[in-house]
From TrEMBL:
Belongs to the group II decarboxylase family. InterPro entries: Aromatic_deC, PyrdxlP-dep_de-COase, PyrdxlP-dep_Trfase, PyrdxlP-dep_Trfase_major, PyrdxlP-dep_Trfase_small. PANTHER family: GROUP II PYRIDOXAL-5-PHOSPHATE DECARBOXYLASE, MIP05841P. Its cofactor is pyridoxal 5'-phosphate. It comes from the Bacteria. It comes from Tenacibaculum tangerinum. Keywords: Aminotransferase, Decarboxylase, Lyase, Pyridoxal phosphate, Transferase. Pfam families: Pyridoxal_deC. GO terms for molecular function: transaminase activity. This is Aspartate aminotransferase family protein.
Length: 476
């Protein structure tokens, strides 16, 4: 008797080929599409909200329904004019690699079940350790769903090593520009609000070293236990990198765990200008990087690197009786012992296949191009009478606002003007460009990490912003 879910070989091939054709066509025609999609909950409910059907329908009909209703109602993150948040440029080889990993349903938790999957995670992890000058023999790491889980894994490890079982007096430090995932991780770990020090940044949005030293000294005098500092290597808002070497000196002197959140900016190590900005990153105890950002991988793949792999295994290893038969020797790593997940998808495959296919030099050229593109956008903006740069191009992120010279608009008027420009851009669906807040000012933010994005794309978007800005001013 055939299994309930079986399709014939010909049916599977026909269905699979159709999906590959759809994906390939999508990649080939990105610049012909509009990047932005928007819909209300009511509109989505009217299309999708129904009870689970008792009887099925032909697979082709379901696929057609998805292509008509799901894909068009999803923002095209791959689009050259998707500038907001941190875009996911991805690459086609990794997309297909994910299909392989899912198609064969490879379990990437333990060595005995999938030795090749574990080995590729070891190999690719070693590539990353070398990239950041972490010790390959002693160091280690793990692929996670993203930066949020990588940061959580790092902080669990740091707390165990520095605090043991009692963390009632422990204090953790980070800047006001640190990613929100760190705050989430701290809350998940059960720290009270009084144990968290969110320190102000300077005019360049970097942590104030003096304020950090003062905060640590004050906490020690009050009988508390400073145990960890979370530095940013490429903030989401501005791309800013904290002064890593200076922070490392403080952490060594004060016996603090030094965690660097390089989820966004870590990949910039491959570019000459990026490597200079990230000087000192090799001194971290733990480092988060997100391959599904600037390493051009599809979602989900984050990564945590540590100086000593035993820190992870000693923190997360459990030995239940149902796993007793699959423990190998120490060199045969079971990655479920390195993090929170037991069941893990085969994330290493897409990273491995894309590096092998394109070569590391291609990644270096792409990242260098992105940094230079942002620099050129800054030059373009500085030549205009309409634009004011609030945070200069830093690791391919730039923040600016529409503020025409000679109009003498109030801060409130400028904020409202830029908010409306963003709203009109989004409503036009021509570009994904939203605002953020810097120094209590509403600004437009561009994150230019897509190698497909050209200076012409940006110029067209800025021209549209200018047009909308003029329209808003005339109306008001």
């Amino acid at each position: 008797m055939s299994a309930h879910f079986d399709l014939s070989k010909e049916e599977m091939k026909s269905y699979g080929y159709k999906i590959v054709d759809i994906i390939a066509e999508h990649w080939a025609t990105l610049d012909q599409k509009k990047p932005v999609s928007s819909a209300s909950r009511k509109e989505m409910d009217s299309i999708f909200l129904q009870e689970a059907p008792s009887s099925g329908m032909p697979a082709e009909e379901v696929l057609d329904f998805v292509m008509e209703n799901v894909i068009p109602n999803s923002t095209v993150i791959l689009h050259p004019k998707a500038y907001s948040f941190v875009p996911g440029p991805s690459n086609f080889i990794s997309t297909m690699a994910d299909s392989l990993a899912t198609g064969f349903n490879i379990f990437s938790g333990g060595w005995m079940v999938s030795p090749a999957a574990a080995e590729l995670e070891i190999v690719t992890m070693n590539w990353l350790l070398k990239m950041y000058n972490f010790p390959v023999e002693k160091g280690g790491g793990i692929f996670t769903s993203g930066g949020s889980m990588a940061n959580l894994t790092a902080l669990v490890t740091a707390r165990r090593i520095k605090c043991g079982d009692d963390f009632s007096k422990a204090v953790i430090y980070l800047s006001d520009q640190a990613h929100s995932s760190n705050i989430k991780a701290i809350r998940v770990l059960g720290f009270k609000k009084e144990q968290i020090r969110i320190l102000p940044t300077d005019i360049e949005f970097k942590i104030s070293i003096n304020k950090l030293k003062s905060a640590i000294a004050k906490d020690r005098l009050e009988g508390l236990q400073p145990f960890c500092y979370i530095a940013s290597a490429g903030t989401t808002n501005t791309g800013t990198v904290d002064p890593l070497d200076e922070i490392a000196d403080i952490c060594e002197e004060e016996d603090l765990w030094f965690h660097i959140d390089g989820a966004y900016g870590g990949a910039a190590i491959l570019a000459e200008k990026g490597a200079k900005a990230l000087r000192g990153i090799e001194r971290a105890d733990s480092l988060t990087v997100d391959p599904h950002k600037w390493f051009f991988q599809p979602y989900e793949i984050g990564c945590l690197l540590v100086k000593n792999a035993s820190w992870l295994s000693n923190t997360f290893s459990e030995k239940p009786e149902y796993l007793r038969d699959i423990e190998g020797n120490e060199s045969e790593i079971n990655f479920y012992d390195y993090g929170i997940q037991l069941t893990r998808r085969f994330r290493a495959l897409k990273f491995y296949m894309s590096i092998k296919t394109y070569g590391l030099d291609t990644f270096k050229k792409a990242i260098t191009y992105n940094i230079e593109l942002a620099d050129n956008v800054e030059k373009l903006l500085r030549k205009s009478r309409n634009w004011e740069i609030i945070s200069p191009a830093t690791l391919a992120v730039i923040n600016f606002r529409y503020n025409p010279i000679g109009l003498h608009l109030s801060e409130k008027e400028i904020d409202e003007l830029n908010q409306k420009i963003s709203q009109k851009i989004m409503a036009s669906r021509e570009a994904l460009l939203v605002t953020t807040i810097l120094n209590k000012q509403v600004v437009l933010r561009m994150c230019l990490i897509n190698p497909k994005t050209t200076l012409e794309d940006v110029e067209e978007t800025l021209e549209l912003c200018n047009t909308f800005g003029e329209e808003i001013l005339k109306e008001e």
